[in-house]
Design a protein that fits this description.
single chain, about 45 residues, mainly alpha
């Protein structure tokens, strides 16, 4: 068995995908600045 990687963009990975925050986790919801900081660390 072999694994052949395919290059994909962030848009490809998350297209047509919805994520929801359960009611009991809403107080832990990330703000835009925290999301930007996390993503900014990994985009060169």
């Amino acid at each position: 068995m072999s694994v052949t990687p395919k290059p994909r963009t962030i848009d490809d990975v998350f297209a047509n995908t919805r994520y929801y925050i359960d009611f009991y986790q809403r107080e832990y919801k990330w703000k835009k600045t925290a999301c930007r900081e996390l993503v900014g660390r990994y985009i060169l």
